[in-house]
Structure formats: C-alpha cells, structure tokens
Amino acid sequence: MVELECSEEVSEEVILDAIMFAHDEIKKLIELQHKLREKAGGKEKITVEIDETDAKLQEELEK
To answer: What is the mean predicted confidence (pLDDT) over 33-45?
Structure first.
C-alpha cells in the first residue's frame, strides 16, 4: 500500500513502477560513483570532526 495525496490522479501500480524504476537508476549512478572514485585513486571518505555544541548558544536558540 502506498499513501499519496495524488492517489486520485495516479494509480498505486504506476507509482510503485516509478519508484522501482528510479531505484534501479540510482543504483547505476552509485555504481558509477564507486568506479570514478577507484579511477581517481580509491581514496576513502574523510572523517569530519564536529565541534562541541555551544551550550550558551543552544540555550538562546531554545528560548
């Protein structure tokens, strides 16, 4: 079951077909990205360090 606001205009079958089509195409794009990364030297993703939250700023934002 798929819940959509446009369900009166498009059938559930059409929506599911579109989702599956897009999913298959996205998998192809991801595979291409992996191949390009390998071709560029195979570097792994970098780890980004996140600064600690400023407690005073957080308090001001929550007001």
So the answer is: 85
Q: What is the pTM of this model?
A: 0.56
Residue boundaries of the structural domains of the chain: 1-43
Residue 59 is encoded by which pair of tokens? 């308090």
CB 2, CB 16: distance < 8 Å? yes
Q: What are phi and psi of 51, to 5 degrees?
A: -65, 155
pLDDT (average), residues 31-49: 87
pLDDT averaged over every residue in the chain = 87
Q: What is the 3-state secondary structure (H, E, C) of the chain?
A: CCCCCCCCCCCHHHHHHHHHHHHHHHHHHHHHHHHHHHHCCCCCCCCCCCCCCCHHHHHHHHC
